[in-house]
Amino acid sequence: MSTGRVSVLRYVVVEDCGAIINPAIVDGQVAGGVVQGIGAVLLERSAYAADGQFRSGTLMDYLLPTSTDVPVIEIHHLESPPRDDVPFRGVGEGGAIGAPAALTNAIEDALAPFGVTVREQHLPPSRILELCGLV
């Protein structure tokens, strides 16, 4: 806890995109969405100056997740038949949409002994330490 660094030990996804034609592509889409969601919480931040100038213009300022930032992602599939009202379904979006909520809730649960309530998405180590009152 002294560093504020979050380690994701396990991440499980269950996705239903209908009939899977190419499992490798589908798994890649799901994993990519999850990595994007994890990065959105732990690393990425779009910063602007008071005059509106974008301050995160390079990868030195806007951090993206690498293989050391994400766990092995367990992916399980459901394959339900198409419905008349939803003939096509996407894949991958669920990871990008669900991961930030899942991760921020997991962080809030882990910080419960400190009485922390998480109401924001950007949670780098410095913010974790601030929330816990350690800086």
Class by alpha and beta content: alpha+beta
Estimated radius of gyration: 18 Å
| Shape assignment | globular
User: Mean pLDDT, as a whole number?
Assistant: 90
Give a verbal description of the structure:
The chain is of the alpha+beta class and 135 residues long. It is built from three helices and two strands, in the order βαβαα. The protein has a two-stranded parallel ribbon with strand order 1-2. Helix 1 (23-42) packs across helix 2. The radius of gyration is 18 Å and the shape is globular. The mean pLDDT is 90.
Question: What characteristics describe this protein?
Answer:
two-stranded parallel ribbon, 135 residues, 2 strands, 33% helix, alpha+beta, Aldehyde Oxidoreductase, domain 4
Itemize the secondary structure elements and their pairings.
Elements: E1 11-16, H1 23-42, E2 73-78, H2 93-110, H3 125-131
Parallel strand pairs: 1-2
Quick overview:
By secondary structure, this protein is α+β, with helices and mostly antiparallel strands. It is built from three helices and two strands.
